[in-house]
Amino acid sequence: MxxxxxxxxxxxxxxxxxxxxxxxxxxxxxxxxxxxxxxxxVAKMGELGWMGIPFPEEFGGAGGTSxxxxxxxxxxxxxxxxxxxxxxxxxxxxxxxxxxxxxxxxRAEWLPRLxxxxxxxxxxxxxxxxxxxxxxxxxxxxxxxxxxxIDGAKQFITNAGTRISGVVCITAxxxxxxxxxxxxxxxxxxxxxxxxxxxxxxxxYRKMGWNASDTRPLTFTGCRVPERNLLGERGRGxxxxxxxxxxxxxxxxxxxxxxAQGALDQALAYARERRAxxxxxxxxQTIQAKLADLATxxxxxxxxxxxxxxxxxxxxxxxxxxxxxxxxxGRLAVRAADEAVQIHGGYGYIEEYPVCRFxxxxxxxxxxxxxxxxxxxxxxxxxxx
Length: 385
Ligand SMILES: Cc1cc2nc3c(=O)[nH]c(=O)nc-3n(C[C@H](O)[C@H](O)[C@H](O)COP(=O)(O)OP(=O)(O)OC[C@H]3O[C@@H](n4cnc5c(N)ncnc54)[C@H](O)[C@@H]3O)c2cc1C
What we know:
Elements: H1 7-34, H2 39-47, H3 66-77, H4 81-101, H5 104-115, E1 120-124, E2 140-144, E3 147-158, E4 165-173, E5 187-193, E6 199-201, E7 215-226, E8 230-231, H6 237-273, E9 275-276, E10 279-280, H7 285-313, H8 319-344, H9 354-362, H10 372-383
Parallel strand pairs: 1-4
Antiparallel strand pairs: 2-3, 3-7, 4-5, 5-8, 6-7, 9-10
């Protein structure tokens, strides 16, 4: 076993860390407060080659590993979750389906611009009646004169409605409505470019956190895309998207890890500065115990996340490890943000302090890309229950 990051990964880690401190930290509070999408930061991350870290160089990606991707996401989230989820959803969910299931033509058409960060990719799975139960999709697509005609709605979709949003990959039922119920729905993935008539993005949601990231409902009304926009195999859409989500969990787990580490960074710095009863509060044992527990849990969580990425990079089965990493880090992020606010006292409740934003940003990590309960199902199944 080798617990050392290799030189390339360490270099990426320190570069993303410097970028996060120098470029993201100074604007994170304002972007959150004004609910402004971080266009300038996305453009810079595109120039730096970070909008396509794990994709092949021949398609404009950085040719990096899953571990490198996880380390980059961790470092960004340590400072700001909105910027991190923008990169993470674009990479793991928006670009990944085309990379995994696209034809050579589809890859050549979309990946270079996605990897450069020129356009953003989105992933349209969730619907009003299909979240955890993703197979209950009601969006329909029927073939007519060489085109798919799509009708339906998606909700809570990240990155679909910005000025640079370029494409969404969706699930849709493509079976005949008269198909017998016992055969189950035929679900297929389709590529829908932004700007296609009949594809509309609704107003952004008013969210608890991730305020600078873009999340909207989508509607498809007689929306027509060419037959060649079929992504992967007809009827394999749900299985394909579940595979994408498996990979995506490594990224979201890296976000939980990064948020927890960022909360600890803030809490530790504050505890050293803040004085009460004539000494820094970091001298009180109860405060020390909180910091020590967090540092220990973060170290354990980091092993889970890096291990899941390591398994994937070696072509080994990583689904269980990714689900465990996601379950552990989501909960840890919520707890770390809570403890960090507690250590800040009343100041932690005030928006000028990053821990206030971290507290609001943390909760979604136990919900998005498979709730904790769904991770528990995945893990229990792997145990043979
Ligand atoms: C900010 C944000 C961004 C998002 N971005 C995207 C995106 O880009 N693309 C996308 O497709 N989706 C996205 N989502 C949707 C997200 O993935 C879903 O909200 C999530 O999967 C849960 O689905 P749901 O909200 O329908 O909850 P439900 O599935 O209705 O779950 C409600 C509760 O029931 C529990 N539950 C459900 N089924 C079971 C079961 N079998 N056993 C035990 N408990 C169960 C759940 O764990 C949860 O606690 C986003 C959501 C948010 C809030």
